[in-house]
């Protein structure tokens, strides 16, 4: 069997959508979510505390409770990486 013809296909939908949905079904652009994450980052930097970052699932619950926006925790982590809100882990 010729292995040169076998190639891995990339998924056609591998690009992110760029929006989220609200509880009512309306679309919210990712720019709004990123702007709110930047505000949260500035708030965390202003008040130096033990908890310098917030987990993705807690942020998803925050956005759902306060804004009614449904965001997957994996998408939230991806957005956190874009703005640098992910904490550094150290090996013990």
UniProtKB/TrEMBL annotation:
<dbReference type="InterPro" id="IPR025948">
    <property type="entry name" value="HTH-like_dom"/>
</dbReference>
<dbReference type="Pfam" id="PF13276">
    <property type="entry name" value="HTH_21"/>
</dbReference>
<protein>
    <recommendedName>
        <fullName>HTH-like domain-containing protein</fullName>
    </recommendedName>
</protein>
<feature type="domain" description="HTH-like">
    <location>
        <begin position="47"/>
        <end position="91"/>
    </location>
</feature>
